Every structure is written in C-alpha cells, then in structure tokens.
Amino acid sequence: MVCKWIIGAGEFLDIAFEAWQRAFPEITVKKIIVPQNSKYEFDLSTLQTLSPSDGSAFVAFDERFGNFKRMELMSAVIQLGFKLDSFISPRAIIASNVKIGPNTLISDGTIIGYGSSIEYNSVLMPGVQIGSGTQVRPSCWIEAGVLIGNNVKIGAHCTFRTGVSIRHGLDIGRYCELGWPQCYEKNIAPKTIFDSRYDAPIYTYQN
User: What are the pLDDT digits (tens) for 67-117?
Assistant: First the structure.
C-alpha cells in the first residue's frame, strides 16, 4: 500500500496532516513526529525505519528560526531517499502556467495568478491571494489572508503575517519578516523585520 507520510512537529504538522486527509481521503496518510533535543537537533530514528519506496513525504514544520529548521528537516528527508510532494488544495484557484515547487503547501481559498511561481518548501495559508507574474522564492511562510500584487519578487525565507498587503511590482529581499498589518508600498531591503512589538522596522542587513 502506497503511503503519504507527513513528517515534522508542532501545530503545523497537525494542520498539514488534516489537510491531506480531508482533501485526499483515498490516500493512506500517516503522521510521523520528528522530535528535537535540547540543542534543537532532529531525531531521525523513526524515519530510518521507513522504506522510501513505499510512498512519498511532505515535511511540515513551522516558521521558527526564519524557516530554516523546516528547510533543514526537508534536506534530511531527501538525503534519506524520500520523494517529496506538494499539497495543493482542491479548493485553491491556480491559474495556468503557475509553477509550484516540491514540499509546498497551498491551502484552501488560495488564489495564484497567471505565470507566478511558488518555489520549494513554501507555505501559503488559507485565503492568500497572489497576483500574476509574481515570484515567491524558496522556504517562505505566508499567513492567512495576505494579499500580494502582480510582478512582485519575494526573496527566500521571508515571513508575511496576517494583514499584510503588498503593492504591484515590489522587490522584497530575502530573510524579511513583514509583521505589521498594513499595505507595503516600497521595496524592502534583505533582512528587514517589521515586528509588531516595535514602532520602527529593524534593519539587520549589511551594506
């Protein structure tokens, strides 16, 4: 019997597992919890008991540590020989000529315009809207209801919180976190953080 293993930890593991089960009841879906030790290192022993040829996998880990722990776990799963799939909700609206990379989650109600690309290991939560010709680089986390315009370029490892709206044609540098619930109207340099706890953005990039 072919299995779909949902591999990871935390709340997002439960979200991804339930999404696969609900959308594809004909598939045998199994949740595989990968714990971490006090140094945040993954314990992969459970994965080593599985046979990659018996199914495929999806890695589910949240946005902590700038999405890097999800990327780290994904890389480890690939090295163990597992094939990674993406989850695309049947209740999402995806235009033609859209490219979606492996281990990406496209949730219910998401809309993606013509010619856009969502690269690997990215997460789009329910109700995200992305315009035409927009590029989302690897390992981004986009929360529910975020609105992104046409021809936007989003760097790798970005995190967008609920309430964010991005004008057409902007460049958002890699490692940015947009946490202010507002419309962003100017390009944003890499490693810029808009933390809702502070009144001014935090610039961590180097010139």
Answer: 999 999 999 999 999 999 999 999 999 999 999 999 999 999 999 999 999
For 66-80, give one letter per residue: b (16+ CB within 10 A) or e.
Answer: bbebbbbbbebbbee
For the entire predicted model, the pTM comes to: 0.95
Domain borders along the chain are 3-79, 86-207
Q: At 120, phi and psi to the nearest 5?
A: -60, 150
For 100-130, give one letter per residue: b (16+ CB within 10 A) or e.
bbbbbbbbebbbbbebbbbbbbbbbbbbbbb
pLDDT band with cut points at 50, 70 and 90 for residue 2 = confident
DSSP 8-state symbol, 83: P
Alpha-carbon dihedral of residues 26, 58, 119, 165, nearest 10 degrees? 80
Q: CATH topology for 86-207?
A: UDP N-Acetylglucosamine Acyltransferase; domain 1 (2.160.10)
Percent of the residues in the chain that have a pLDDT greater than 70, as a whole number: 98
